[in-house]
Specification:
The protein has 478 residues and is α/β, with parallel strands linked by helices. It has a domain at 30-354: TIM Barrel (Alpha-Beta Barrel), CATH 3.20.20. 35% of the residues lie in helices and 21% in strands. The protein is built from 15 helices and 20 strands. The protein has a seven-stranded parallel sheet, with helices on both faces. Strands 13-14-15-20-17-18 form a six-stranded antiparallel sheet. A three-stranded antiparallel sheet has the order 6-8-7, with no helix packed on it. The longest helix has 32 residues, at 446-477. The radius of gyration is 25 Å and the shape is globular. The two termini are 35 Å apart.
Protein backbone atom coordinates (compact mmCIF):
# COMPACT_ATOMS: atom_id res chain seq x y z
CA UNK A 1 0.00 0.00 0.00
CA UNK A 2 1.52 3.39 -1.01
CA UNK A 3 1.85 6.32 1.38
CA UNK A 4 -1.11 8.25 -0.01
CA UNK A 5 -3.50 5.32 0.08
CA UNK A 6 -2.38 4.33 3.58
CA UNK A 7 -2.81 7.88 4.85
CA UNK A 8 -6.24 8.39 3.35
CA UNK A 9 -7.51 4.99 4.46
CA UNK A 10 -6.26 5.47 8.02
CA UNK A 11 -7.80 8.92 8.34
CA UNK A 12 -11.12 7.85 6.90
CA UNK A 13 -11.37 4.80 9.15
CA UNK A 14 -10.46 6.95 12.17
CA UNK A 15 -13.03 9.52 11.14
CA UNK A 16 -15.68 6.83 10.70
CA UNK A 17 -15.18 5.45 14.20
CA UNK A 18 -15.02 8.92 15.79
CA UNK A 19 -18.32 9.98 14.22
CA UNK A 20 -20.03 6.76 15.31
CA UNK A 21 -18.41 6.31 18.71
CA UNK A 22 -21.72 6.73 20.44
CA UNK A 23 -22.90 3.47 18.85
CA UNK A 24 -19.77 1.44 18.20
CA UNK A 25 -17.36 0.81 21.03
CA UNK A 26 -14.98 -1.80 22.33
CA UNK A 27 -16.58 -4.35 24.64
CA UNK A 28 -15.20 -6.62 27.28
CA UNK A 29 -15.00 -10.06 25.69
CA UNK A 30 -16.83 -12.00 28.37
CA UNK A 31 -18.26 -14.79 26.20
CA UNK A 32 -16.99 -16.78 23.26
CA UNK A 33 -19.52 -15.05 21.02
CA UNK A 34 -17.31 -11.97 21.28
CA UNK A 35 -14.18 -13.85 20.19
CA UNK A 36 -12.46 -14.74 16.94
CA UNK A 37 -10.05 -17.68 16.85
CA UNK A 38 -6.73 -18.11 15.04
CA UNK A 39 -5.49 -21.71 15.01
CA UNK A 40 -1.87 -22.81 14.61
CA UNK A 41 0.70 -25.52 15.29
CA UNK A 42 3.64 -24.29 17.37
CA UNK A 43 6.15 -26.28 15.29
CA UNK A 44 4.96 -24.79 12.01
CA UNK A 45 4.69 -21.14 13.02
CA UNK A 46 8.05 -19.51 13.74
CA UNK A 47 11.45 -20.73 14.93
CA UNK A 48 12.80 -18.13 17.34
CA UNK A 49 15.65 -20.13 18.88
CA UNK A 50 17.73 -23.05 17.61
CA UNK A 51 18.61 -24.33 21.09
CA UNK A 52 15.57 -26.63 21.10
CA UNK A 53 15.87 -27.82 17.47
CA UNK A 54 16.83 -31.35 18.51
CA UNK A 55 16.18 -33.15 15.23
CA UNK A 56 14.44 -30.44 13.25
CA UNK A 57 14.41 -30.73 9.47
CA UNK A 58 12.34 -27.95 7.83
CA UNK A 59 12.72 -29.64 4.44
CA UNK A 60 10.95 -32.80 5.61
CA UNK A 61 7.15 -32.24 5.79
CA UNK A 62 6.81 -35.11 8.28
CA UNK A 63 9.54 -33.94 10.65
CA UNK A 64 9.71 -31.25 13.29
CA UNK A 65 10.45 -27.88 11.67
CA UNK A 66 11.71 -26.01 14.74
CA UNK A 67 8.83 -23.69 15.68
CA UNK A 68 8.63 -22.91 19.38
CA UNK A 69 6.79 -20.97 22.10
CA UNK A 70 9.18 -18.06 21.75
CA UNK A 71 8.43 -18.00 18.03
CA UNK A 72 4.70 -17.57 18.71
CA UNK A 73 5.56 -14.70 21.06
CA UNK A 74 7.79 -13.17 18.39
CA UNK A 75 4.95 -13.17 15.82
CA UNK A 76 2.06 -12.53 18.19
CA UNK A 77 1.60 -8.97 16.94
CA UNK A 78 0.86 -10.42 13.51
CA UNK A 79 -2.16 -12.19 15.01
CA UNK A 80 -3.10 -9.26 17.24
CA UNK A 81 -2.97 -6.78 14.35
CA UNK A 82 -5.39 -8.93 12.34
CA UNK A 83 -7.85 -8.54 15.21
CA UNK A 84 -8.02 -12.10 16.52
CA UNK A 85 -8.72 -12.45 20.23
CA UNK A 86 -7.89 -16.15 20.78
CA UNK A 87 -4.77 -18.04 19.69
CA UNK A 88 -5.60 -21.73 19.50
CA UNK A 89 -2.51 -23.91 19.74
CA UNK A 90 -2.15 -27.62 19.03
CA UNK A 91 -1.17 -30.04 21.82
CA UNK A 92 1.94 -28.88 23.70
CA UNK A 93 2.72 -32.11 25.57
CA UNK A 94 5.71 -34.38 24.97
CA UNK A 95 5.02 -35.94 21.59
CA UNK A 96 6.41 -37.94 18.69
CA UNK A 97 4.83 -35.76 15.98
CA UNK A 98 5.14 -32.11 15.00
CA UNK A 99 1.38 -31.58 15.41
CA UNK A 100 1.56 -32.82 19.01
CA UNK A 101 -1.05 -35.54 18.54
CA UNK A 102 1.05 -38.57 19.41
CA UNK A 103 1.36 -37.74 23.08
CA UNK A 104 4.08 -39.45 25.12
CA UNK A 105 3.49 -37.87 28.51
CA UNK A 106 0.88 -35.35 29.65
CA UNK A 107 3.08 -34.34 32.55
CA UNK A 108 5.80 -32.95 30.29
CA UNK A 109 5.81 -30.15 27.74
CA UNK A 110 7.36 -30.94 24.37
CA UNK A 111 11.00 -29.90 24.73
CA UNK A 112 11.26 -28.96 21.06
CA UNK A 113 8.58 -26.31 21.65
CA UNK A 114 10.31 -24.87 24.69
CA UNK A 115 10.47 -24.92 28.45
CA UNK A 116 7.77 -24.54 31.06
CA UNK A 117 9.04 -21.02 31.70
CA UNK A 118 8.77 -20.15 28.00
CA UNK A 119 5.25 -21.57 27.83
CA UNK A 120 4.25 -19.33 30.74
CA UNK A 121 5.89 -16.41 28.93
CA UNK A 122 3.69 -17.16 25.94
CA UNK A 123 0.53 -17.12 28.02
CA UNK A 124 1.55 -13.95 29.84
CA UNK A 125 2.50 -12.22 26.57
CA UNK A 126 -0.94 -12.98 25.15
CA UNK A 127 -2.68 -11.69 28.26
CA UNK A 128 -0.68 -8.46 28.17
CA UNK A 129 -1.98 -7.94 24.65
CA UNK A 130 -5.53 -8.71 25.84
CA UNK A 131 -5.58 -11.98 23.94
CA UNK A 132 -6.36 -15.51 25.10
CA UNK A 133 -4.55 -18.83 24.71
CA UNK A 134 -6.42 -22.05 23.94
CA UNK A 135 -4.66 -25.44 24.02
CA UNK A 136 -5.74 -28.57 22.15
CA UNK A 137 -6.15 -31.66 24.30
CA UNK A 138 -6.55 -35.03 22.52
CA UNK A 139 -8.60 -37.58 24.45
CA UNK A 140 -7.33 -40.63 22.56
CA UNK A 141 -4.93 -42.08 19.97
CA UNK A 142 -1.73 -41.38 21.87
CA UNK A 143 1.72 -42.72 21.04
CA UNK A 144 2.23 -46.43 21.67
CA UNK A 145 5.22 -45.26 23.71
CA UNK A 146 3.01 -43.25 26.04
CA UNK A 147 4.00 -43.80 29.67
CA UNK A 148 0.55 -45.27 30.40
CA UNK A 149 1.26 -48.14 28.03
CA UNK A 150 4.19 -49.23 30.20
CA UNK A 151 2.17 -49.21 33.43
CA UNK A 152 0.74 -52.68 34.29
CA UNK A 153 -1.92 -51.01 36.48
CA UNK A 154 -3.37 -49.39 33.38
CA UNK A 155 -3.58 -52.48 31.16
CA UNK A 156 -7.38 -52.45 31.27
CA UNK A 157 -7.40 -48.98 29.73
CA UNK A 158 -5.51 -49.94 26.60
CA UNK A 159 -7.73 -51.17 23.81
CA UNK A 160 -4.87 -51.70 21.39
CA UNK A 161 -1.48 -50.32 20.45
CA UNK A 162 -0.46 -50.77 16.83
CA UNK A 163 0.94 -48.71 13.95
CA UNK A 164 2.43 -46.40 16.53
CA UNK A 165 -0.94 -45.53 18.06
CA UNK A 166 -2.26 -46.39 21.50
CA UNK A 167 -6.02 -46.34 21.92
CA UNK A 168 -7.68 -45.93 25.29
CA UNK A 169 -11.04 -47.29 26.41
CA UNK A 170 -12.86 -44.04 27.12
CA UNK A 171 -15.72 -45.95 28.77
CA UNK A 172 -13.37 -47.20 31.47
CA UNK A 173 -13.98 -45.24 34.67
CA UNK A 174 -10.32 -45.25 35.69
CA UNK A 175 -9.28 -43.93 32.27
CA UNK A 176 -11.91 -41.22 32.52
CA UNK A 177 -10.67 -40.23 35.95
CA UNK A 178 -7.03 -40.13 34.80
CA UNK A 179 -7.81 -37.94 31.78
CA UNK A 180 -10.01 -35.62 33.82
CA UNK A 181 -7.33 -35.19 36.48
CA UNK A 182 -4.71 -34.57 33.80
CA UNK A 183 -6.71 -31.78 32.16
CA UNK A 184 -7.73 -30.22 35.48
CA UNK A 185 -4.12 -30.27 36.74
CA UNK A 186 -3.00 -28.61 33.52
CA UNK A 187 -5.67 -25.90 33.88
CA UNK A 188 -4.55 -25.28 37.46
CA UNK A 189 -0.86 -25.14 36.61
CA UNK A 190 -1.13 -22.87 33.59
CA UNK A 191 -3.40 -19.90 33.22
CA UNK A 192 -4.81 -20.96 29.86
CA UNK A 193 -8.10 -19.50 28.66
CA UNK A 194 -9.51 -22.41 26.72
CA UNK A 195 -9.31 -26.09 25.88
CA UNK A 196 -10.00 -27.49 22.43
CA UNK A 197 -10.84 -31.18 22.71
CA UNK A 198 -9.99 -33.62 19.92
CA UNK A 199 -10.04 -37.38 19.27
CA UNK A 200 -13.52 -37.73 20.78
CA UNK A 201 -14.45 -41.03 19.12
CA UNK A 202 -15.79 -43.43 21.72
CA UNK A 203 -15.99 -40.81 24.47
CA UNK A 204 -19.40 -40.83 26.21
CA UNK A 205 -21.08 -37.44 26.22
CA UNK A 206 -21.51 -37.60 29.99
CA UNK A 207 -17.73 -38.07 30.39
CA UNK A 208 -16.95 -35.05 28.20
CA UNK A 209 -19.50 -32.97 30.10
CA UNK A 210 -17.87 -33.99 33.37
CA UNK A 211 -14.47 -32.78 32.10
CA UNK A 212 -15.95 -29.49 30.90
CA UNK A 213 -17.60 -28.99 34.28
CA UNK A 214 -14.36 -29.82 36.10
CA UNK A 215 -12.22 -27.30 34.20
CA UNK A 216 -14.84 -24.59 34.58
CA UNK A 217 -14.73 -25.18 38.31
CA UNK A 218 -11.04 -24.31 38.10
CA UNK A 219 -11.77 -21.23 35.99
CA UNK A 220 -15.43 -20.33 35.22
CA UNK A 221 -14.39 -18.21 32.23
CA UNK A 222 -12.34 -20.93 30.49
CA UNK A 223 -13.68 -21.91 27.07
CA UNK A 224 -14.29 -25.50 25.97
CA UNK A 225 -14.73 -26.28 22.27
CA UNK A 226 -14.14 -29.11 19.79
CA UNK A 227 -13.70 -29.40 16.03
CA UNK A 228 -15.74 -32.57 16.04
CA UNK A 229 -19.49 -32.96 16.16
CA UNK A 230 -20.70 -33.70 19.67
CA UNK A 231 -23.73 -33.34 21.92
CA UNK A 232 -21.49 -32.28 24.81
CA UNK A 233 -21.87 -28.92 26.54
CA UNK A 234 -19.23 -27.07 24.56
CA UNK A 235 -19.27 -23.29 24.29
CA UNK A 236 -19.56 -23.50 20.51
CA UNK A 237 -21.12 -25.93 18.09
CA UNK A 238 -19.02 -27.46 15.31
CA UNK A 239 -20.81 -28.71 12.20
CA UNK A 240 -19.07 -30.52 9.37
CA UNK A 241 -22.04 -29.71 7.15
CA UNK A 242 -21.70 -25.99 7.85
CA UNK A 243 -17.96 -26.02 7.13
CA UNK A 244 -18.52 -27.78 3.80
CA UNK A 245 -21.37 -25.38 2.99
CA UNK A 246 -19.12 -22.36 3.49
CA UNK A 247 -16.38 -23.96 1.43
CA UNK A 248 -18.72 -24.92 -1.38
CA UNK A 249 -20.46 -21.53 -1.39
CA UNK A 250 -17.27 -19.46 -1.72
CA UNK A 251 -14.90 -21.63 -3.77
CA UNK A 252 -16.50 -20.02 -6.85
CA UNK A 253 -19.21 -17.49 -7.65
CA UNK A 254 -22.97 -17.98 -8.17
CA UNK A 255 -23.14 -21.02 -5.87
CA UNK A 256 -25.95 -21.92 -3.40
CA UNK A 257 -25.82 -20.15 -0.05
CA UNK A 258 -28.96 -21.59 1.59
CA UNK A 259 -27.21 -23.37 4.48
CA UNK A 260 -24.82 -20.59 5.44
CA UNK A 261 -27.65 -18.05 5.62
CA UNK A 262 -28.97 -19.62 8.83
CA UNK A 263 -25.96 -19.59 11.16
CA UNK A 264 -26.50 -19.34 14.92
CA UNK A 265 -24.61 -17.39 17.60
CA UNK A 266 -22.75 -20.45 18.88
CA UNK A 267 -21.78 -21.87 15.47
CA UNK A 268 -18.10 -22.11 14.60
CA UNK A 269 -17.71 -20.37 11.23
CA UNK A 270 -14.85 -21.50 9.00
CA UNK A 271 -13.86 -22.47 5.48
CA UNK A 272 -11.36 -25.12 6.58
CA UNK A 273 -9.35 -26.29 9.59
CA UNK A 274 -6.02 -28.01 10.12
CA UNK A 275 -7.50 -31.49 9.67
CA UNK A 276 -9.06 -30.70 6.29
CA UNK A 277 -7.82 -29.66 2.87
CA UNK A 278 -7.07 -25.96 2.58
CA UNK A 279 -9.79 -23.75 1.15
CA UNK A 280 -7.25 -22.50 -1.40
CA UNK A 281 -7.04 -26.04 -2.78
CA UNK A 282 -10.74 -26.02 -3.67
CA UNK A 283 -10.79 -22.49 -5.11
CA UNK A 284 -7.73 -23.32 -7.24
CA UNK A 285 -9.53 -26.39 -8.60
CA UNK A 286 -12.23 -23.99 -9.79
CA UNK A 287 -9.56 -21.88 -11.54
CA UNK A 288 -10.50 -18.96 -9.31
CA UNK A 289 -8.16 -16.43 -7.68
CA UNK A 290 -7.83 -17.69 -4.07
CA UNK A 291 -7.19 -14.30 -2.36
CA UNK A 292 -10.43 -12.89 -3.75
CA UNK A 293 -12.30 -16.05 -2.77
CA UNK A 294 -10.86 -15.91 0.76
CA UNK A 295 -11.66 -12.23 1.25
CA UNK A 296 -15.26 -12.71 0.16
CA UNK A 297 -15.68 -15.69 2.50
CA UNK A 298 -14.07 -13.78 5.37
CA UNK A 299 -16.41 -10.84 4.77
CA UNK A 300 -19.38 -13.15 5.30
CA UNK A 301 -17.91 -15.11 8.23
CA UNK A 302 -17.04 -11.99 10.21
CA UNK A 303 -20.46 -10.37 9.77
CA UNK A 304 -22.72 -13.39 10.35
CA UNK A 305 -23.91 -14.74 13.71
CA UNK A 306 -21.32 -17.17 15.08
CA UNK A 307 -17.67 -17.41 16.13
CA UNK A 308 -15.08 -16.89 13.34
CA UNK A 309 -12.38 -19.56 13.27
CA UNK A 310 -9.38 -19.37 10.93
CA UNK A 311 -6.39 -21.64 10.30
CA UNK A 312 -2.92 -20.09 10.24
CA UNK A 313 -1.78 -19.37 6.70
CA UNK A 314 -5.25 -18.53 5.39
CA UNK A 315 -4.09 -14.89 5.38
CA UNK A 316 -1.47 -15.83 2.77
CA UNK A 317 -3.74 -18.23 0.85
CA UNK A 318 -1.78 -21.28 1.99
CA UNK A 319 -2.57 -24.31 -0.18
CA UNK A 320 -2.58 -28.04 0.48
CA UNK A 321 -4.60 -31.20 0.13
CA UNK A 322 -2.78 -33.52 2.54
CA UNK A 323 -1.48 -32.69 6.02
CA UNK A 324 2.10 -32.63 4.71
CA UNK A 325 1.09 -30.00 2.15
CA UNK A 326 -1.29 -27.90 4.25
CA UNK A 327 0.85 -27.76 7.41
CA UNK A 328 3.54 -25.63 5.82
CA UNK A 329 5.92 -23.44 7.75
CA UNK A 330 4.29 -20.03 8.00
CA UNK A 331 5.68 -17.51 5.52
CA UNK A 332 5.46 -13.94 6.80
CA UNK A 333 7.06 -12.32 3.72
CA UNK A 334 4.05 -12.24 1.45
CA UNK A 335 1.58 -9.84 -0.14
CA UNK A 336 -0.61 -8.35 2.57
CA UNK A 337 -3.87 -7.96 0.67
CA UNK A 338 -5.82 -10.53 2.70
CA UNK A 339 -4.09 -9.45 5.91
CA UNK A 340 -5.18 -5.84 5.44
CA UNK A 341 -8.74 -6.95 4.75
CA UNK A 342 -8.72 -9.08 7.90
CA UNK A 343 -7.51 -6.11 9.92
CA UNK A 344 -10.38 -3.98 8.66
CA UNK A 345 -13.22 -6.49 8.96
CA UNK A 346 -12.08 -7.79 12.35
CA UNK A 347 -11.65 -4.24 13.64
CA UNK A 348 -15.24 -3.45 12.72
CA UNK A 349 -16.50 -6.64 14.36
CA UNK A 350 -14.45 -6.11 17.52
CA UNK A 351 -15.83 -2.58 17.90
CA UNK A 352 -19.44 -3.51 17.22
CA UNK A 353 -21.37 -5.61 19.71
CA UNK A 354 -24.19 -5.73 17.17
CA UNK A 355 -22.04 -7.60 14.62
CA UNK A 356 -20.96 -10.04 17.32
CA UNK A 357 -24.19 -10.74 19.15
CA UNK A 358 -26.97 -8.67 17.56
CA UNK A 359 -30.11 -9.91 15.85
CA UNK A 360 -30.22 -10.95 12.18
CA UNK A 361 -32.85 -10.54 9.49
CA UNK A 362 -32.28 -12.21 6.13
CA UNK A 363 -33.34 -9.93 3.29
CA UNK A 364 -32.07 -11.73 0.20
CA UNK A 365 -30.49 -15.11 -0.51
CA UNK A 366 -30.02 -16.24 -4.08
CA UNK A 367 -27.02 -18.22 -5.33
CA UNK A 368 -24.17 -16.19 -3.90
CA UNK A 369 -26.09 -12.97 -3.36
CA UNK A 370 -26.79 -12.50 0.34
CA UNK A 371 -28.26 -9.44 1.99
CA UNK A 372 -28.98 -9.37 5.71
CA UNK A 373 -29.55 -6.89 8.48
CA UNK A 374 -27.60 -7.03 11.75
CA UNK A 375 -29.26 -4.87 14.34
CA UNK A 376 -29.71 -4.04 18.01
CA UNK A 377 -31.22 -1.19 19.98
CA UNK A 378 -27.99 0.76 19.52
CA UNK A 379 -27.15 0.33 15.83
CA UNK A 380 -28.04 -1.27 12.52
CA UNK A 381 -25.98 -2.60 9.63
CA UNK A 382 -27.05 -3.81 6.21
CA UNK A 383 -24.56 -6.41 4.98
CA UNK A 384 -24.36 -7.19 1.27
CA UNK A 385 -22.40 -10.25 0.17
CA UNK A 386 -22.15 -10.22 -3.61
CA UNK A 387 -20.46 -13.52 -4.31
CA UNK A 388 -21.76 -13.58 -7.87
CA UNK A 389 -20.20 -13.01 -11.28
CA UNK A 390 -22.03 -9.72 -11.94
CA UNK A 391 -23.00 -6.43 -10.35
CA UNK A 392 -26.08 -6.77 -8.16
CA UNK A 393 -28.75 -4.32 -7.03
CA UNK A 394 -31.34 -4.41 -4.30
CA UNK A 395 -33.96 -1.84 -3.31
CA UNK A 396 -34.78 -1.79 0.39
CA UNK A 397 -37.84 -0.05 1.76
CA UNK A 398 -37.86 2.34 4.69
CA UNK A 399 -39.71 -0.37 6.62
CA UNK A 400 -36.46 -2.37 6.54
CA UNK A 401 -33.90 0.42 6.76
CA UNK A 402 -35.74 3.14 8.70
CA UNK A 403 -37.18 6.59 8.13
CA UNK A 404 -35.05 9.66 7.41
CA UNK A 405 -31.75 7.78 7.54
CA UNK A 406 -28.82 7.21 5.23
CA UNK A 407 -26.54 4.24 4.60
CA UNK A 408 -22.80 4.70 4.69
CA UNK A 409 -20.65 2.03 3.05
CA UNK A 410 -17.66 1.29 5.25
CA UNK A 411 -15.36 -0.26 2.64
CA UNK A 412 -16.49 1.33 -0.64
CA UNK A 413 -17.33 4.56 1.22
CA UNK A 414 -20.46 5.29 -0.77
CA UNK A 415 -23.43 7.16 0.67
CA UNK A 416 -26.96 5.92 -0.01
CA UNK A 417 -30.00 8.12 0.56
CA UNK A 418 -33.64 7.32 -0.20
CA UNK A 419 -34.95 7.71 -3.72
CA UNK A 420 -38.10 9.67 -4.50
CA UNK A 421 -40.24 6.65 -3.70
CA UNK A 422 -38.51 6.21 -0.35
CA UNK A 423 -36.44 3.12 -1.22
CA UNK A 424 -32.73 2.67 -0.62
CA UNK A 425 -30.94 1.37 -3.71
CA UNK A 426 -27.79 -0.63 -3.04
CA UNK A 427 -25.58 -1.48 -6.02
CA UNK A 428 -22.47 -3.58 -5.48
CA UNK A 429 -19.82 -4.91 -7.85
CA UNK A 430 -19.10 -8.63 -8.11
CA UNK A 431 -17.12 -10.55 -5.48
CA UNK A 432 -17.35 -7.83 -2.83
CA UNK A 433 -18.74 -7.69 0.69
CA UNK A 434 -19.95 -4.32 1.94
CA UNK A 435 -21.24 -3.18 5.32
CA UNK A 436 -23.63 -0.25 5.27
CA UNK A 437 -24.09 1.46 8.58
CA UNK A 438 -27.52 2.99 9.08
CA UNK A 439 -27.14 6.51 10.50
CA UNK A 440 -29.34 9.55 10.97
CA UNK A 441 -29.45 11.74 7.92
CA UNK A 442 -26.97 14.55 8.49
CA UNK A 443 -26.48 16.25 5.15
CA UNK A 444 -22.85 16.96 4.34
CA UNK A 445 -20.37 14.77 6.15
CA UNK A 446 -18.17 17.52 7.52
CA UNK A 447 -15.78 15.16 9.27
CA UNK A 448 -15.29 13.19 6.04
CA UNK A 449 -14.48 16.37 4.11
CA UNK A 450 -12.10 17.54 6.82
CA UNK A 451 -10.36 14.16 6.87
CA UNK A 452 -9.94 14.23 3.09
CA UNK A 453 -8.55 17.77 3.22
CA UNK A 454 -6.09 16.86 5.97
CA UNK A 455 -5.04 13.74 4.08
CA UNK A 456 -4.24 15.64 0.92
CA UNK A 457 -2.50 18.44 2.79
CA UNK A 458 -0.31 15.95 4.62
CA UNK A 459 0.43 14.15 1.38
CA UNK A 460 1.41 17.42 -0.33
CA UNK A 461 3.59 18.30 2.66
CA UNK A 462 5.24 14.90 2.36
CA UNK A 463 5.96 15.52 -1.34
CA UNK A 464 7.41 18.96 -0.59
CA UNK A 465 9.70 17.51 2.10
CA UNK A 466 10.89 14.76 -0.26
CA UNK A 467 11.46 17.29 -3.06
CA UNK A 468 13.44 19.63 -0.79
CA UNK A 469 15.60 16.82 0.56
CA UNK A 470 16.29 15.65 -2.97
CA UNK A 471 17.21 19.17 -4.04
CA UNK A 472 19.48 19.60 -1.02
CA UNK A 473 21.28 16.32 -1.78
CA UNK A 474 21.95 17.52 -5.32
CA UNK A 475 23.43 20.78 -4.02
CA UNK A 476 25.54 18.90 -1.46
CA UNK A 477 26.93 16.63 -4.20
CA UNK A 478 28.09 19.51 -6.37
Amino acid sequence: MNFKKLLVTSLLMSCFWVTTSQNIHAEETTSIHNESIYDLYVDRYFNKTSTNDLDANPKDPNAFAGGDFLGVIEKMDHIKDMGFTIISIGPVFATERYDGKRVLDFNLLEQRFGSEEEFKQLINAAHKKEMKIMIEFPLNNFSENHIWNADPAKEEWIVKAEDGVMQVDLNNSEAQQALTETIVDFAKQYNVDGVKFSQLDGAPTTFINDIVTAIKEVNPSIYAIALEESDANFDTQYSEELLVSFREAFKNTDLPTDRIASTKDNDLLMIDHLNTERFTYYSALENMFPPTRIKTAIGAIFTMPGVPYMSYGTEIAMNGQTAQESHQIMNFRVDEDIIEYLKDINSIRNKSETLRTGKTELLKNEDGYLVYKRYSDEETFIVVVNNTSSTQRIDLSSDVVGENVELRGIFEQDLVRPTEDGDYRLVLDREIVELYQVTDRKGLNTSYIVAMAIAYLLFLAFLVIVWRKGKQRKLDNK
